[in-house]
Design a protein that fits this description.
By secondary structure, the protein is α+β, with helices and mostly antiparallel strands. The chain has 9 helices and 10 strands. The chain folds into 2 domains: 18-186, Electron Transport, Fmn-binding Protein, Chain A (Pnp Oxidase, Chain A, Roll); 202-262, no CATH class. A hairpin with a 2-residue loop joins strand 3 (47-58) and strand 4. The chain is globular.
Amino acid sequence: MTDGSLTPTERTRVKRLADRASYERADVHRILDETYTCAVGYVIDGRPYVTTTAHWRDGDRVYWHGSSASRFLRSVVGNEACLTAHLLDGFVLARSGFEHSMNYRSVTVFGRVEMVERDRAGVLDRFVEKIVPGRSAELRRPTEQELKATTILAMPIEEASVKSRDDGTHDPEADWGEPVWAGVLAIESRFADLIPETDPPPRASVLPLLTSASDEVRTSAVRALGRVGSAADISFLLALAAEDGAVRRAARLAARSRDRVRATPRGSRARV
C-alpha cells in the first residue's frame, strides 16, 4: 500500500469549499473501509448509468462484484468509471431552513475498470472479512460453478478525493436570537442484535430426505425429482414427503405434474 497524498486532477480537485477536501490516501482508504455500499457510474452506448453495489478495498484497489450474466458488468470492463461512497454523521439544524446542512464524509474515485481473473476466491474472502472478520475461515469454500457465476471488478485508487464536513451551524448573526433550537443531531451506524436462522430455506430442507429418510420416502422423493421440472416444485414435494403419510400425496402431486412437465423441453427437466 502506498502512503502519502494523491495528486489532485481536474476530475478530483474540489473547487467549491475546497477547505473540506482531502487527497490523503489514508482518508480515502478509511472511508472506503467504513462504508459497505457505493454507487458506480459509467456510460454504455452513450447512456449514463449508476449502479448501487457492495464494495471492499484491498491495498490500493477497490473491488465490487455481481452476476456473470450482467451485461452492465461486462460492458464496463476496460472503460472509465466513477465510484462514490459516503457516511452521514449528522444533521445540522440551523435557525432557518436555508442554513440547514449535514455532517458527512464522502469519497470519489475515478479509474479504468479491470476484470479480476486471478485468486478470485481469495479476493471474495477479503470481502467476507470486511463484513465479519474471521468468518471466511468458517465457511465452505466456493465451488467452481459459483466462481464462474461471479464477476469481480476492480479499480485502482490513484485518482480520488475526499470531501467532508464536521461542524456546527453557520447561522448569520441576525438569526442568533431566533427562538428555535439549533445544533447538530448526530447520527451513528452500529450493529444491532444477531438474528439467528432458525428455519432452513425450503430447498436446503429437502436434502436430508434423500439420505436419512425411509426407503419408501426416498424412493418417492427420487421419483418426484424425475417428474417435476422446477426446483421449487421439487422442494415442495420433498417437504411433503417428510410428513407422516405424505409419500402418497407427493406421488399424487408428481403424477399431476407429469402432464405439465411433458410440455416442458427435455433439457429443462430436473435430473437426479
